[in-house]
Design a protein that fits this description.
The protein has 16 helices and 13 strands. It is an alpha+beta fold.
């Protein structure tokens, strides 16, 4: 990961009018609204599937949104100044919004404030939000410097071409044959315009519960606008913009497509690199490349938690109900319940239960794991990201015979709680289950706002941290 301190970078960057600051305190009139997607936590750090599907989404729209157009005024030599737009309301995975962003890249424009406007965004659920709009307002939506508003891609594209493109550049003959060819091309492009949305379905469309305005806990927000160097046709830039929508984070967009003069500016700022995406965050004096690193940073800094893998969540929905009865039958058998010496087995179970009680009562958070289980790794990563201290107790590599090292303790957990699968998390001496399910489970507790990172100092707010013990006393008492 390449992370840079940005004092020198910001000093070298072209000056722009100051961006608006963002609200950090929830408002009592915020509507309690849940995301309409099947799972509020289906959005996480991109995985091995996200990168190629984002790449195919870019290919489907070639050559749009990749290279600065020859008809862009910025490329005509008439001005070296940055050409800017004021406020753009946008949803990343929306076809009409995508058409607008493509043209913004081609015209090499800067948008001083891109406001994510997903249906469950602060834009529509928080009346106190400075960018609030009435429910049902058309998106995309462009607010000009004089306050005039343009809604819908058709009007916005017409304005962009009239204002920032050279009139008559790229015009062609109007004979019948060329018109017929153009109609065929337009029809094909119309079909292709739907493909990115299908390929990236479920991403960049909703605000995730880790950053929801209706969360029971205040979500950390930046006080200074984030700055993103990006261009529409780049698959890695798309991944970052999707998360900016999912975290409901306004940002300044600086187009840096191929042939953009802004790439030379980037190279001067960064010591030679013009790689996109490139994020600058003056709130934490940070600048970085690499989409995966940027996304992890955004979740760590501006979300209540980092959502776990959506692939594992989907697998858990299938595996847990299917294998639960098998685990429950198998656990005592692996521990020796079918042996002739039942007294020894009962004594071993009683000893294991006593050990579990000692372990879970002497540590605020205890998690029982298998070292090879991806679910267990995801759970400990989630606790690490929450800055929660915990005691991890491994029962072996996996539940498979020959890999499990403490079958007695696993069977004892089953008798005590009814759960024999791992990870198994205890807080304050009481079981909350696994990562995705249980009583209520780690992720459901986060979604409900009943579990929060303790002793965490938010740089953007003066909020008092929520202590883990509050969750124990309020939810488990």
């Amino acid at each position: 990961m390449r992370v840079m301190k940005i004092a020198a970078i910001v000093a070298a960057a072209p000056a722009l009018p100051q961006a608006a600051s963002f609200s950090t305190v929830p408002h009592p009139q915020i509507q309690q609204r849940r995301p309409t997607s099947a799972s509020a936590l289906s959005m996480s750090v991109p995985n091995s599937i996200d990168t190629p599907t984002s790449g195919f989404a870019s290919i489907a729209r070639l050559p749009f949104g990749v290279t600065v157009s020859s008809d862009a005024k910025r490329m005509q030599g008439s001005t070296n100044d940055d050409l800017t737009l004021s406020i753009l309301y946008d949803v990343e995975n929306d076809m009409d919004c995508r058409l607008v962003r493509e043209r913004i890249s081609e015209l090499d424009l800067i948008v001083k404030t891109v406001v994510p406007a997903a249906p469950n965004s602060r834009v529509f659920v928080d009346p106190s939000y400075e960018f609030a709009l009435p429910e049902g307002s058309e998106i995309p939506r462009l607010v000009l410097e004089d306050g005039k508003t343009l809604a819908g891609s058709e009007d916005i594209l017409a304005y962009l071409d009239e204002t920032f493109a050279v009139e008559g550049a790229g015009s062609s003959s109007n004979n019948d044959e060329s018109d017929a060819k153009q109609q065929i091309i337009d029809a094909a492009l119309k079909v292709a315009s739907y493909l990115p949305g299908l390929l990236r379905a479920g991403r960049g469309q909703q605000v995730c519960s880790a950053a929801s305005a209706s969360s029971k806990l205040p979500v950390p927000r930046p006080t200074k606008s984030l700055i993103l160097y990006s261009y529409e046709g780049n698959q890695f830039c798309r991944l970052v913009r999707e998360v900016l929508t999912e975290l409901d984070l306004p940002y300044e967009l600086r187009s840096a497509g191929k042939s953009s003069p802004r790439r030379e500016q980037m190279a001067q700022m960064t010591g030679g690199s013009s790689q996109c995406p490139y994020l600058i965050d003056e709130n934490t004096d940070t600048a970085m490349f690499e989409s995966a690193d940027i996304i992890r940073y955004l979740y760590k800094t501006y979300a209540l938690w980092t959502p776990p893998s959506e692939l594992l969540e989907s697998a858990s929905d299938v595996v847990t109900p299917l294998f639960k009865p098998i685990y429950q039958k198998l656990a005592p058998i692996q521990a020796g319940a079918n042996g002739e010496d039942t007294a020894s087995y009962d004594a071993a179970i009683a000893k294991a239960k006593s050990e579990i009680e000692d372990e879970t009562n002497s540590n605020t958070v205890v998690i029982y794991t298998y070292s090879l289980s991806p679910f267990c790794t995801e759970a400990t990563d989630l606790l690490d990201n929450l800055d929660i201290k915990y005691k991890e107790i491994s029962l072996g590599k996996e539940w498979i015979p020959g890999l499990i090292e403490e079958p007695i303790k696993r069977a004892a957990l089953g008798e005590m709680t009814g759960q024999t699968s791992l990870p198994h998390i205890f807080i304050g001496g009481k079981s909350i289950g696994g990562i995705f399910s249980g009583t209520p489970g780690l992720v459901p507790a986060l979604e409900e706002g009943t579990l929060m990172r303790p002793h965490k100092e938010y740089t953007a707010t003066a909020l008092q941290p929520v202590c883990l013990h509050n969750w124990i006393t309020s939810s488990l008492a």
